[in-house]
Amino acid sequence: MFEKILIANRGEIALRIIRACHELGISTVAVYSTADELALHVRFATEAVCIGPPEGSRSYLHIPAIISAAELTNADAIHPGYGFLAENAEFATICEDHGITFIGPKADTIRLMGNKSEARKTMIKAGVPVTPGSRDVIHNVQEVVQEAEELGYPVMVKASAGGGGRGMRLVESPELLPEAFIQAQHEARNAFGNGDLYLEKFITEPRHIEVQIMGDPSGKAVALGERECSIQRRHQKLIEESPSPAVNGPLREKICKAAVRAAEKVKYLGAGTVEFLLDGENDFYFMEMNTRIQVEHPVTEMVYGTDLLKTQLGVHAGIPMPDWVRKASLRGHAIECRINAEDPSHDFRPSPGLITSFHVPGGMGVRVDTAAYAGYHVQPYYDSMIAKLIVHSNSRDSAINRMQQALEEFVIEGIPTTIPFHQQVLADPDFRRGEFTTSFLETFQYQPIEESE
Fold it and tell me: pTM value?
């Protein structure tokens, strides 16, 4: 096992990694920007190194500073968490060049699966269902028009190097396609430094289903069930749950086997997810592979009774995956709400500022992953998520009820948050029945709560 791990991240995921390391007897190194000097991951790590000013590009994304911190503290591995450098193939390569283990898949795997067009080709070879679409990158308007005519409308223009909805356009008619293609190409080039695009048939009213995978050093992989991620806004997930209310036993077995084929095809190492779209006929299609630990990994931990972070650390240290992980079985239901420093009354406008009061809920089956506290200043430089509230119970109805109570108990004052939004979603009849798709929030009407005098 590793002796010392540097965590190239911040916030709740940095704390989550620190806890897993401490349970395994591994020393930790926190890196931080000057804005995060009072952050909890700095306080609870074994050591801490300041790596730059507040802006992410000059600190948490600054590879030379992170490598220098690792060498200065004699760290033998770096865990990137999620976001920032987690899916950066160049960073993975640089780590290995410096004799530091990168706790993530190999750089070639990140590079391959980060290119959505190449990933589609690889999945086709692995026998994994993919959405009908172009087999190669589309270079110009003439090509995209021809491909769209063959596929039939509506279609999705997507960035090969994309993520988070950037470089993506839904096109419902031929006359809108040329402009959408040019806009997506420009956006992709600015966001990722790569303007390559491909085309997919648009799946109407799909559900977003992802499968948790873990690959070991032998090249074998295991799937730990699916997560339902359809409640999302602008392609950003807000509520996740496991199991999906739309997936039964036979479908679960089928989709998990496809995810394992995908992972083993690329000799995947460590924790990751294979993401699918599920249509109304229970046909599923590969969408992408996320080559990192996911924000919503606690949902799977709750229903499978396994610590994904500790397992991830073990396989990257060359330790075979424990049999109990391979044999883990689904039990009960778990739901996660992402609590963001955003104002749902004003189109989810980010709301950085000082948290004046902070009280987390508790009780049986309630978990809160957070790095916030009373007196904590939510910074404007980073992602707006300040906490993850996860509940587990023996059924979906019971889990929803438990989540509603936990949200009621969760007190955050000083800044607006998404807590009241989650309360209204969980009370929605369609949500409670499990009858929703990725378009759920397009028609959901949030009712702002009037403040009392």
Answer: 0.92
Q: Give the count of alpha carbons within 13 A of 366, CB side only.
A: 17
> pLDDT for 119-154, tens place per residue?
999 999 999 999 999 888 998 999 999 999 999 999
Taking only the tens place, the pLDDT of each residue in 434-447 is 999 999 999 999 99
pLDDT in tens, 282-313: 999 999 999 999 999 999 999 999 999 999 99
- Name residue 270's amino acid: G
Q: What domains lie within the chain, and their CATH numbers?
A: 4-103 (3.40.50.20), 132-201 (3.30.1490.20), 207-443 (3.30.470.20)
Q: What is the DSSP string of 434-453?
A: T---TTHHHH----PPPPP-
On the 0-12 / 13-18 / 19+ scale of CB atoms within 10 A, 227 is buried
User: Cβ–Cβ contacts within 10 Å for residue 353, how many?
Assistant: 14
Distance CA 282, CA 316 (A): 35
Q: What are phi and psi of 20, to 5 degrees?
A: -60, -40
Q: Which residue has the tokens 């190097």?
A: 161
Alpha-carbon gap, residue 444 to 424, rounded angstroms: 10
Active site residues: 292
